[in-house]
Amino acid sequence: MPVEVIWGIAAVALLVIALALAALAVTVLRLSREAHAALVSGQRLLWMLESELPPTVTQLRELTGKLDGLADEMPPRLERLDALLDEGEETLAAVRASAEATEQVARVPLDAVERVRHVLRRGGPERSERG
What we know:
By secondary structure, this protein is mostly helical. It has helices spanning 3-122, 125-130.
């Protein structure tokens, strides 16, 4: 094999290696840009977490305290509401009983009036006795 062919093959090999290194350099450059963008985004996220997380945690602690207080206040209020409902049921039962008694009291004179009307429609007491 002549020396010129060997030098030609070596030149082509060096050219292929140079193109591969250039492609590798472009890929590394793109990758470094993406890594830089990810780093910047991560820094922004970290800044947001550092600035917004403490007030949010503080608000959550305050809310938890308020909910605990509300939970402590609920049982007596529920007991009072239950007592009021029981009292309301008792009052309703008393009103029903009173209405029934009033109806019975009012029915006696109405029944007497109805009997008198009935007797009068028949023609009076004489007719019913003769009847």
